[in-house]
Amino acid sequence: MNVVILAAGKGKRMHSDLPKVLHPLAGKALLAHVIETSRQLGAARICVVYGHGGEQVRETLDAPDLGWARQEPQLGTGHAVLQAMPALAGTTASTLVLYGDVPLTRVASLQRLIAAAGDGALGLLTAHLNNPHGYGRIVRVDGKVVRIVEEKDADDAERAITEINTGILVAPTAALARWLPTLGNRNAQGEYYLTDIVAMAVSEGMPVATAHPEASWETEGVNSKLQLAQLERVYQQNLAVRLMEQGVTLADPSRIDVRGELICGRDVSIDVNCVFEGRVVLGDGVRIKANCVLEDAVVGAGSVIGPFARLRPGTELGRDVHVGNFVEVKNSSVADHSKANHLAYIGDATIGSRVNVGAGTITCNYDGANKFRTVIEDDAFIGSDTQLVAPVTVGRGATLGAGTTLTRNAPPDQLTISRAQQVSIPGWKRPTKNANAKKKD
Ligand code: UD1
Ligand code: CA
């Protein structure tokens, strides 16, 4: 099977310089969702029809298994699919047409459509809507589909039809190659309508099958920021349900955002307002407290994160690690039973087991040009408000006194401290306001 993805539309109503199909849903471009769906269907060839801003689309999402066809100017959906036909030459299978701005169609729904059409029929994904306004209507005679009429071309009786064309269809590739060049554009919009192939199939005696998505959001498209936000909520809601079905405890399923892949062990609990980006792995019994942001991070079993913690890419935490409020970890590994409970930056560091990182500790990993690593060995104790100027190593069992600026390695098992000596000045007077000073306005 082939898939043609239509993505040439301008997306004016997004009011954005970014091409519509590149707007992210759950952290991934709309079109990337459709490409992913096509791959899950096992498509032999995937051809994206692009137009407006298309070079940027192509550069952003190109992959070895994708073909690209440029449509310029955009003369309608039939004209769009026609542009993809050279890329499908020599394939005998059927071709599924998807839309680059319809991101959430379920694979199962498409499989039902493909099965309904079989090898020799035209298959349409249709839906019954209470308010069908704006959609192409499915015209049936004696229960059989005979054609699709667009809203703008329909008469009153046709407008009353509530079965609509979602736009998604599957057709024998050879039939498409035959039909598409013969499409006309004598209609209300002066466009070459893909939907006109339905009447062509019927006139050839080809059966027209239909299938329906289970949920209306499966075939909803994104034309505006409002619709984008609505489908984002649908996606997040579905994902939250899946997580809970796997046994994850969510304090509030409407207050979690997963923009990538979240893999959870048993008995994971996630409090409200947490954002997961990229690939995040949470081991058994991990607790994520409220208001955390985790990106491309691995959290070992029994660890507790947050509230208000940020784990950035390359964070690998062992078992029973505590990362508390206002702690940021980046490109660092922290081994079992270590803790950084308050206000710290741990960047480019390798931290051993049972290490205590005091409040206000900062790894100074960047000199303005290059980045360096900090190594903290097992059982070290890092006093509060310490700066570790990398590259630097804190030996096993070492203690750093509070306020230390560490610029050379700290030997194991010793107290290392760098601190200006404390002085007290007897008789010192606190300045007082000068009563004669002119009041400034
Ligand atoms: C189309 C269908 C209509 C259906 C509706 C579902 C036709 C003639 N009509 O109408 O029956 O109910 O979708 O939303 O097919 N596109 C291109 N190149 C073009 C024109 C469109 O790539 O020249 C792409 C758009 O980017 C979009 C999709 O095709 O992703 C649909 O185009 P749109 O203009 O929204 O079609 P409708 O007029 O809504
Ligand atoms: Ca549309």
General description of the model:
The protein has 441 residues and is an alpha/beta fold. It has two domains: 2-219, Spore Coat Polysaccharide Biosynthesis Protein SpsA, Chain A (Alpha-Beta Complex); 225-416, Hexapeptide repeat proteins (UDP N-Acetylglucosamine Acyltransferase, domain 1, 3 Solenoid). It is built from eight helices and 34 strands. The protein has a 20-stranded parallel sheet that branches. The protein is elongated and about 105 Å long. Bound molecules: uridine-diphosphate-N-acetylglucosamine and calcium ion. Residues 6-9, 49, 71, 74-77, 79-80, 99-101, 135-136, 148, 150, 164-167, 193-195, 221 line the site of uridine-diphosphate-N-acetylglucosamine.
Descriptive key words:
binds uridine-diphosphate-N-acetylglucosamine; alpha/beta; Spore Coat Polysaccharide Biosynthesis Protein SpsA, Chain A; binds calcium ion; 441 residues; 20-stranded parallel sheet; UDP N-Acetylglucosamine Acyltransferase, domain 1
Distance between the termini: 79 Å
- Here the CATH topology of the largest domain equals Spore Coat Polysaccharide Biosynthesis Protein SpsA, Chain A
Number of domains: 2
> Unreliable stretches, pLDDT < 50, 5 or more residues?
none
Fold topology:
Blueprint: E1 2-7, E2 24-25, E3 28-29, H1 30-40, E4 45-50, H2 54-61, E5 66-70, H3 77-88, E6 94-99, H4 107-117, E7 122-128, E8 137-141, E9 144-149, H5 156-159, E10 163-172, H6 173-179, H7 197-203, E11 208-211, H8 225-245, E12 249-250, E13 256-264, E14 269-270, E15 274-282, E16 287-288, E17 293-295, E18 297-299, E19 304-305, E20 310-311, E21 315-317, E22 322-330, E23 333-334, E24 339-347, E25 349-351, E26 356-357, E27 362-364, E28 374-376, E29 381-382, E30 387-389, E31 392-394, E32 399-400, E33 405-406, E34 415-416
Parallel strand pairs: 1-4, 1-6, 4-5, 7-11, 12-14, 13-15, 14-16, 15-17, 15-18, 16-19, 17-20, 18-21, 19-22, 20-22, 21-23, 22-24, 23-25, 24-26, 25-28, 26-29, 27-30, 28-31, 29-32, 30-33, 32-34
Antiparallel strand pairs: 2-3, 6-10, 7-10, 8-9
The chain binds uridine-diphosphate-N-acetylglucosamine and calcium ion.
